[in-house]
Design goal:
Elements (H helix, E strand, L loop, with lengths): L2 H21 L6 H8 L3 H7 L3 H13 L4 H4 L8 H16 L2 H13 L4 H10 L1 H19 L6 H13 L3 H5 L8 H20 L3 H6 L11
Helix pairs in contact: 1-2, 1-4, 2-3, 4-8, 6-9, 6-10, 6-12, 9-10, 10-12
Length: about 220
Amino acid sequence: MRVKSEARRLAYVHAAGAMFLQHGYADVSMEGIAAAVGGSKVTLYGYFASKEELFEAFVVEIGRGKAQQLEEIKAMRDDPGATLLALGLAYLRLVTAPDIVALDRLIISEAVRFPELTRIFYEHGPRQVVTTMGRVLGGLRLAQGLSAPSVRLLALQFKALCEATIRDRQLWCLDPVPGSKLLRSSVDAAVALFLNGCTGLSPEQAARRLPHAAATPEA
């Protein structure tokens, strides 16, 4: 695809994304998206065969680059605490980004009427995140004896611990975007509890496997 054509395609994707987040999926039309970019509906359909296809392109684009830090993490078998800390921080930075939170709210609001949107979002977002986290935790499981029916379950449990005091409150507009100090304290607490549950260590022993003692975040 020529550079000019790719720029035009991205213009449609960005315009559609902004409109989806502002007005909801149902109230946005292909004609309106074309008008926002300054082109014709015929030209838009030359890039995207349907609004659903355009939405999928938007979901892919909004996540581009954001998961890179998460994907680059390797399991350090001699230092599970540091590995989990890096994994948890990368995950929280991803899911607390304002545009990702806005997309989550959109999916929740439209899920009943447009279940295909949930499938698109899940396949390109949460499913890939859990798979990536499972890969890292799988490396630790082999070396440290972490026990669970599957690494997927480990990933789901660890991410739930990390986001426990942050994610819902931000999603519900109760709290602003969390700062680095709150992210760190939340992950520290999650890692200490996770290691304790997986390895049978006492909370004090688990905390000593962190770069510093775990702090308990506010609820």
